[in-house]
Write a structure and sequence with these properties.
The protein has 238 residues and is of the alpha/beta class. The protein has two domains: 3-80 and 157-236, 3-Layer(aba) Sandwich (Rossmann fold), CATH 3.40.50.300; 94-156, no CATH class. It has nine helices and ten strands. It has helices at residues 43-51, 73-78, 96-105, 111-124, 126-130, 141-154, 171-186, 199-204, 222-226, and strands at residues 3-14, 17-28, 32-37, 58-63, 66-67, 81-84, 159-163, 190-195, 207-212, 215-221. The strands form two sheets. Strands 6-7-8-3-9-10 form a six-stranded mixed beta sheet, sandwiched between helices. A four-stranded antiparallel beta sheet has the order 2-1-4-5, covered by helices on one side. Helix 3 (96-105) crosses helix 4. The chain is globular. Bound molecules: adenosine-5'-triphosphate (ATP). The site of adenosine-5'-triphosphate has 12 residues, from strand 2 and helix 1.
Length: 238
Amino acid sequence: METLLLLENVSVKYGAIEAIRGINMEIKEGSVVCLIGANGAGKSTTVNTIAGLVKNQTGKIFYDGKDISKWETDERIKSGIAISMEGRRIFPDQTVYDNLLLGGYTRRKKIKELKRDIDQIMDRFPILKERANQLAGTLSGGQLQILAIARAFIAKPKLMLLDEPSLGLAPILIKEIYKMIKDFHKEGMTILLVEQFAQYAFSISDYAYVLEHGKIVIEGKSEDVRNNPALSSAYLGE
Ligand code: ATP
């Protein structure tokens, strides 16, 4: 498998706070990689840095063989990187359906195909179908989260960055989201899955990284990391 994303010695500081310190990561094309860690370990900073929402002070980020460290977020999105952040980037004054339509707009040409994909996603999440004509601004936090994730998938990115997709959701919705991740992985999508609790993430990922205080402390095949005695049971909890 080819390398799709490579982080070399990437560090990010917010003032005096060192959020991530000299991170090295590799994501092979077509794989699912999970990044786990406790609150404040630097998971969101890592994802936001890959998406260009935060700039790295040291190191380099290579995507598809190109150094994208200096690229703006929109250039990264155009080249196939998508980030689903909780509720953000959703247009509250547009309907749920139009939000889904807009999600596919950037990367798709055929409206027919796009509408078919939206129908499929709405079948999976009946809540989106029921509320298709409702303004997104009227959705609950959990519903917004589903919409944000569904929309990111509809764009069919080459690299999908999922930041704690299961956070605060009911188990039944978590299962649906993980099913969706599996399906898109089967279709060849490369996925970086960030989670605080890893029991689901280990089961669908090929490779895992564990972040503590801004540093990668354990990495390896998900199966091995899950059974690594050095892994804090806190990550398996809930
Ligand atoms: P969480 O699960 O709570 O989102 P995380 O693993 O994603 O945690 P980050 O959000 O990346 O961790 O935060 C890493 C460190 O950087 C923390 O100490 C946090 O307080 C700090 N931090 C994050 N964002 C900012 C910011 N915009 N300004 C200042 N400090 C920040």
